[in-house]
């Protein structure tokens, strides 16, 4: 299986968790990681044809990003807007992503317990991620349960280090082997 990981941290060099994940995935067979902030530059401009060629060769696409204000960083939204175009991803002839898998590898600053009804963030991660699930449906992809590392900004790096083998498995394992609950909690 060929997996494309699109990292959408606005400054991957300054990240602890997302950089650690990106580096680990860079050394994983069958995985092609791309740093979208580097590719798109400060203008967040993407060459649609080039990005689409990466998508066409992948069986699974994983969006890796820190959870910012209940969504993804702007660089990922820019990429989605410029690459998942009519006639390629949807609409007449827009079947290029049909049958592929979409996964999410997300880091949050808060603990898992804060992402539920009545807690600090009032909603579950599944509820916050509905737009990504619908995007997968819209373009004919199979949506995988997300892989989430909560409390990623913790100074205790043991949870981050422990998440690496699970993340690699999430990114590379066959769909049926991905656990229904792919969430990892650091606190």
Automatic annotation (TrEMBL):
Keyword Oxidoreductase listed: yes
Domain Flavodoxin-like fold: 1-157
Classification via InterPro entries: Flavodoxin_fold (IPR003680), Flavoprotein-like_sf (IPR029039), KefG/KefF (IPR046980)
Swiss-Prot/TrEMBL keywords: Oxidoreductase
PANTHER family listed in its UniProt record: GLUTATHIONE-REGULATED POTASSIUM-EFFLUX SYSTEM ANCILLARY PROTEIN KEFG (PTHR47307:SF1)
Name listed for the protein in its UniProt record: Glutathione-regulated potassium-efflux system ancillary protein KefG
Organism name: Shimia sagamensis
